[in-house]
Automatic annotation (TrEMBL):
<dbReference type="InterPro" id="IPR050833">
    <property type="entry name" value="Poly_Biosynth_Transport"/>
</dbReference>
<feature type="transmembrane region" description="Helical">
    <location>
        <begin position="408"/>
        <end position="427"/>
    </location>
</feature>
<feature type="transmembrane region" description="Helical">
    <location>
        <begin position="348"/>
        <end position="367"/>
    </location>
</feature>
<feature type="transmembrane region" description="Helical">
    <location>
        <begin position="253"/>
        <end position="274"/>
    </location>
</feature>
<feature type="transmembrane region" description="Helical">
    <location>
        <begin position="51"/>
        <end position="79"/>
    </location>
</feature>
<feature type="transmembrane region" description="Helical">
    <location>
        <begin position="91"/>
        <end position="115"/>
    </location>
</feature>
<dbReference type="InterPro" id="IPR002797">
    <property type="entry name" value="Polysacc_synth"/>
</dbReference>
<keyword id="KW-1003">Cell membrane</keyword>
<dbReference type="Pfam" id="PF01943">
    <property type="entry name" value="Polysacc_synt"/>
</dbReference>
<feature type="transmembrane region" description="Helical">
    <location>
        <begin position="155"/>
        <end position="175"/>
    </location>
</feature>
<feature type="transmembrane region" description="Helical">
    <location>
        <begin position="312"/>
        <end position="336"/>
    </location>
</feature>
<feature type="transmembrane region" description="Helical">
    <location>
        <begin position="222"/>
        <end position="247"/>
    </location>
</feature>
<keyword id="KW-0812">Transmembrane</keyword>
<feature type="transmembrane region" description="Helical">
    <location>
        <begin position="121"/>
        <end position="143"/>
    </location>
</feature>
<protein>
    <submittedName>
        <fullName>Uncharacterized protein</fullName>
    </submittedName>
</protein>
<keyword id="KW-1133">Transmembrane helix</keyword>
<feature type="transmembrane region" description="Helical">
    <location>
        <begin position="21"/>
        <end position="45"/>
    </location>
</feature>
Amino acid sequence: MATGRHRSVDRDRGYLAGVRATAATSLAVTAAGAVQGILLARLLGPAGRGAYAIVTSYASAAAAVGECGLTAAICFFVARQPGRAPDVVRTGGALLLALGVVVGVGGYLAAPLVLPHDPTAARAFAIVFAAEPVIFVSACWVFALQATRLAVWNLTRAVQPLLQLVGVGVLAVTVGLTLGGTVACLLVSIAVQAVFAAVLWRLDVPTRGRIRRDEARRLLRYGAGVFLSALPYLLSAQLDILILALLVEPAQVGYYAVAVSMSLISQPICVAFGNVAMPRLARQSAVAAGAAVAAGAGGAGAPSGPRRTAMIAVGASLACGIVAAGVMSALAPIVVPRVLGARYGPSVHLLWLLAPGAALLGCNRVTDDVLRGLDRALTVARCEGAGSALTVVGLAVLVPILGVEGAAIASTVAYTASFLLLFRAVLRAVDVPARTVPARAYGLLAARAASRRRVVPLGGGR
């Protein structure tokens, strides 16, 4: 038993090493985003910062919805069946290009309707959407790398934000920063990342692959489930800014955007557990299914490997989210005036309203990835759908009365409801009774502590 326990801990180390590397990259990316956010807040002002938040929120939401879950499908099937990776990536890239063109044209035409009273922001909106085909195609290679080479994937995803920060900094100290210049830096960094990802993928997998109808069917089938699960989450995560953009002044959106950015401080660490768990669970499930078929034990229940990975991912991400939200809430009254200036004081109160939900949001994203890695995307759709319904109702009721404060309250309530439903779904998926969760958590912690206390004798212990 002790040998089996130690072997499990050793396997956990591989997973946690990937999480640490991914979290470190995410923290670097977040730090770059934070520095850029400070520059934008100070140099563009609340109105300019709010306009940029509107442009990027619409563009990111459109990309996340418009790709129809294909990026997650590419990651899932490349991890599950590496031998078919070239065909999966080639077919997925063709599908994503077509979807990117559709989304780009739609957003370009909708720009005057979203920002009718701000021609500069409307022009920036249209330009960003014109680049959507490049964004979609680059995602094909980026998500394939997530399934095969985690270190290379981390390097690839760091390129865009770091390069954009450099561009924004150069403009800030030379010709001055404007909304148009910020958008130009965004687009150049996206193009460079696309080329970088394509080159790294071809170096890793020289075979180009072919566009195959059966691969397209598999990708679209899995992607449909992810789409149905991602759409409610995106509504919960983005609908507040999208609605506020239509109902309140851009400066109010700017205050809210700053508060949201601060509330998400734990996300780089939390989501790393899901980023690593999703392809890992896809591989583990495939191996376990093959072993079960070979042994004639198809109904033996959830295998221990996926169960441990899922429980570690969910539990650790929840702990990180709670700690980070508490620390940020305590520091906000000191940090905000000194870093952003006194005019951003309203953001502190908004952060306090957002913090409880933000503590759970990272764990929600991890549980989404865990369930998708276990091929249960439709379960995610049902859980996130309930949260989205609460978001819509909350925004409709509270924003007209309370403004941005109402949006913060609605978001917290929705994230909490989603967490409860998703956590229950994970427990069912890995066959863990809820009453046993505290004991299992203690057992995992005890095993980790014991592994740290182990001393290897000099001379090897022959």
